[in-house]
């Protein structure tokens, strides 16, 4: 009975390790293709969230695969805690310079993404082409002020309202291929 439990925990540990390696490989692939194909994550904060998941899966896998002494577990937990706190700080601070406006369509097939430079109000609409990866499509005609209002008129049509130059402006985005 104990051997079956150890085998199960070993399988779970290896599965978690493989998942963490897969996530790490995905992140490395993103870093290489982002420059070549001018793609970005739909929301810049995804980079940090994916890194946090990678380290969490790795953290869960290691104790299942290797017998660690109590001291090593505490040291490892401290390192993981610091890593996650740094990523949470970067996640929050990255949205201070570039504000991400993200909205998912009612049928979950399309994602509206607008990235606004907080300093100068310049906003760029991103079109999702590769799942969670997107390319810049067009710059909004006016420098923005205030909040964006996004309303999905249909499963593939989104209306965006924003304030610029003391007036409200609306833009319609269609997701018809």
From TrEMBL:
It comes from Oceanobacillus indicireducens. Keywords: Membrane, Transmembrane, Transmembrane helix. The chain crosses the membrane at residues 12-33, 45-67, 74-92. The keyword Transmembrane applies. It comes from the Bacteria. This is Uncharacterized protein.
């Amino acid at each position: 009975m104990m051997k079956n439990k150890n085998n199960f925990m070993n399988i779970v540990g290896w599965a978690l390790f493989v998942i963490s390696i897969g996530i790490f490989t995905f992140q490395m692939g993103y870093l290489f293709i982002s420059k070549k194909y001018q793609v970005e994550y739909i929301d810049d904060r995804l980079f940090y969230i994916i890194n946090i998941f990678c380290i969490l899966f790795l953290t869960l896998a290691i104790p299942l695969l290797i017998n660690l002494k109590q001291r090593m577990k505490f040291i490892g937990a401290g390192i993981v805690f610091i890593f996650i706190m740094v990523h949470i700080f970067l996640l929050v601070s990255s949205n201070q310079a570039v504000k991400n406006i993200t909205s998912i369509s009612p049928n979950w097939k399309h994602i509206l993404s607008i990235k606004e430079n907080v300093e100068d109000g310049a906003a760029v609409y991103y079109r999702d082409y590769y799942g969670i990866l997107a390319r810049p499509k067009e710059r909004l005609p006016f420098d923005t002020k205030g909040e964006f209002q996004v309303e999905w008129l249909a499963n593939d049509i989104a209306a965006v309202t924003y304030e610029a130059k003391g007036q409200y402006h609306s833009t319609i985005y269609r997701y018809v291929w």
